[in-house]
Specification:
This protein is of the alpha+beta class. The strands form two sheets. Strands 1-2 form a two-stranded antiparallel ribbon. It has a two-stranded parallel ribbon with strand order 3-4. A hairpin with a 2-residue loop joins strand 1 and strand 2. The chain contains five helices and four strands.
């Protein structure tokens, strides 16, 4: 279980609220790709024991290819580990480098090891995941 001080650190960010209920941590965030900011900050403070799985509700799968590679981003940020990226740089990346349609955050999160597996409930509008080649 994460210490209360670590949980409180996430709540210091705008549009992120953390609640503790029945021995579970519940994190509410703004919308769509802002979950990457939440998961990034959580990773920095070792909030999760391992990379979390994600269940989300959306009409879209938000799985367009963001065309990013972790190795290239770490080089750009001049760090060896995603946890060493300054928050300001990461949040700017999410806001300005990912797609403005909020359609590529899922695969970006997976590439950055912020999301392990994901399940989308309610997806009807596109088929990015179905069209992927899982060889």
């Amino acid at each position: 279980m994460v210490e209360i001080t670590s949980i409180g650190q996430l709540s210091l960010h705008t549009n992120i609220e953390v609640y503790h209920f029945n021995d579970k941590n519940i994190i509410l965030y703004d919308d769509h790709r802002s979950i990457l900011n939440v998961l990034f900050e959580a990773k920095k403070i070792d909030f999760f024991e391992k990379t979390p799985n994600l269940i989300f509700f959306d009409r879209h799968d938000d799985a367009c290819n963001p065309c990013i590679k972790l190795k290239e981003l770490l080089k750009k940020w001049n760090v060896k580990n995603i946890k060493d990226v300054p928050s300001r740089d990461f949040w700017s990346f999410v806001e300005f480098d990912l797609g403005g349609l909020d359609d590529d955050w899922l695969l970006a999160g997976m590439e950055l090891d912020l999301i392990n597996h994901a399940v989308v409930i309610g997806q009807k509008e596109n088929s990015n995941i179905k069209d992927m080649n899982f060889e």
